[in-house]
Amino acid sequence: MTVTAKIAIFAGILAALTAGCGERDVILSGERSDIREGIAPFVNQVAAVNFAGARANADWTHRNGGPDHQISHPALGAALTQVMTVNIGEGDSRRARITAEPVVSGGVIFTLDARARVSATSTSGASLWAVDVTPGRDSATDASGGGVTVAGGRVFVTTGFGELTALDAATGRELWTQDLDAPGTSAPTVMGDLVYVVARNSAAWALDVNTGRTQWQISGTPSIANFSGGAGVAVNGDVALFPFPSGEVVATFPQGGTQRWSTVLSGERNGQAATIISDISGDPVIANGRAYVGNFGGQLAALDLADGERIWTAREGAMGPVWPAGNAIFLVNDLNELVRLDAATGELVWRVALPQTEQSNRKRAKAASYGPILAGGRLIVASSLGQLLHYDPSSGALIGTTPIAGGAATNPVVAGGTLYVISKEGQLLAFR
Fold first, then answer.
1. In the chain, N or C: fewer CB atoms in 10 Å?
2. 186-236: pLDDT as tens digits
């Protein structure tokens, strides 16, 4: 076949394909319906919250208040004024982050900076002691993250160097150190004569509070996709809940470590790249016979504490421990929203967008929101953009703001009618 013939055939085919393009569209008769018909946009609801009245609390010893990671409703004044600023060490940088919220006991606030420096500060602002728990062998090594807990006259500190250290709360003297074989960046939990911690290699430890000796260990399913920080163990007199980076949650008897049940928090929020991370980001919270657990990828579950059976699942990730209060569950979700769920069903009651971006080195970075806590009758969220945000628990309406110099780096805590938060600049700030 000649080239001329091939061109002619090609031209004919092209003409046939394009001939239909000039035809008029056929418009079918009949009623037209929106393909999204029946899917109404969500509308925030206003509903009363039947939480307990505010009560004064002297201490805040663990993340979210206590070893079960829930404290009822601490008293706090309506109008907050900054009353104290104390440098605690190194703040956030490109290579290091503050991940430990302050804890309070006996009129002393204990803090951990971005570089393994533990400090004790009186509620009047006096520096009592400071100790660097960086291992000597790692003095030139970069490591960040960790948590701090106070109980029984001891301060327990985990670090990115893979150690759990116990210090004397009065003097800062080292009592013992246990090597965890992996970064121990979640906050430790103390109940009775044991301190519990989960390392980033999915190994969980129960150690003697007096000696640091291993009493028992359990292991979870390994995971390679997790983040700095991690969730800590929740414990009451009947059960210890261990959250692992794989999304697995294991319940044991607190003494001996015999397993009671286990479950996996799986699933993801569509359209979000971060959902490949299965890590438990919302520390388990024990309240009213239930365990509340949230992950990084968009799932939150209410579990029966006795047997681990799923009561409900909500498509909301939890970036920290949730806050149960009567008929409501409050949380900051994986989309940086403040959310209220119905405690009975997990259904959404309202959601409020939190400040989203901040300017950093000529780039726009996602802002971080810490909390929420319920104190003084309102919800409080600390923002890295430099504000304490106060919300109405019934409606989610913003009812006030308080400036935070330098922006927040931790969850706020309340003890003795005073709110404490650590700034990104490495300062302990107090408001009352």
1. N
2. 899 999 999 999 987 889 999 999 999 999 999 887 765 555 567 999 999
Which class is domain 90-362? mainly beta
Helix (H, G, I), strand (E, B) or coil at 143: coil
The domain ranges of the chain are 90-362
DSSP annotation string for 198-244: E-TTSEEEEEETTT--EEEEEE----S---SS-PPPEE-SS-EEEE-
Query: Two tokens at 299?
Result: 């799932």
Pairing type for strands 214-219 and 203-208 reads antiparallel
Instruction: Collect contacts of 167-172 with beta carbons under 8 A, ≥24 apart.
Output: 167/118, 167/131, 167/133, 169/105, 169/106, 169/108, 169/110, 169/120, 171/129, 172/118, 172/120, 172/128, 172/129, 172/130, 172/131
The amino acid at 53: G
pTM: 0.87
- Residue 298, strand partner residues: none
Residue 76 exposure: Cα atoms within 13 Å on the Cβ side: 25
